[in-house]
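Exercise 7.
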Amino acid sequence: MRLEAALLCALAAAALVEGSHKIMSDVTLGFGQALEHCREESGLTEDKMEEFFHIWSKDFKFQDRELGCALRCMSKHFNLITDANELHHENTENFIKSFPNGEQLAKELVVLIHNCEKQFEGVEEHCMRTLRVGECIRDACLSRDLAPTMELLLAEFIMQTEA
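Solution. The predicted structure, written as tokens, is:
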């Protein structure tokens, strides 16, 4: 009986993780819809735009200021940051909730993002600050096993483009 209970718990945990990956994939692709809009404003090249598909990879390097400018522009596009360049908690939570099952992660992600933002509030240049915060968010999501896999992200992207 204990083995069955342990197996059931393991399957439930695996389903929750898989569900989180799907939600994060949807949020990432939704957020990414503003990328083309922000490409010119941020000075992002076509090559750098393609790198966005790898943003959840542990090996992805958050080093180009233009990437920070693009992330900032994308956040502004969805009204996720205030004029003072700070997280707009309610708008961010509502943005995440707008995706299927997003309510499961919305509060956790807002806290995670806010904590990352606090770590870099001393960085005055907006694009570099956003770049550091973005890296922190990626690392926190990876450590919590929330980040979508590259395979899932690509599959979701292909499904969206074919729809």
